[in-house]
Amino acid sequence: MVNRLNQGTIIKASGISFPLLIVSKNTINVLNQGVITCPIVIDEVENALHLRVENEEISGLILCEHLRLIDLSERSYSVISELPLSEIINVTDAIQSIFDYI
Question: d(Cα 18, Cα 39) in Å, to the nearest integer?
């Protein structure tokens, strides 16, 4: 079930009130029981780590500093949307910036 989810997929998972963007690489998604995600919310301020996503299915801000491992073998979920590669690159660049050296 988890191995069909790709980096850039936006899902709604049971027990979580906001959509989640899968940010972990496809190979990680296949090897692990879970996926690494960032929440998408509507009531935050846009900045370098809060990136806007907007398409027909969803509108909000991706909170890049709120990484969470979600075990989808324990939750039901549905796919909402997919991000284009250019937006995935922006998100992963923002996440990487959290861990950069000074």
Answer: 6
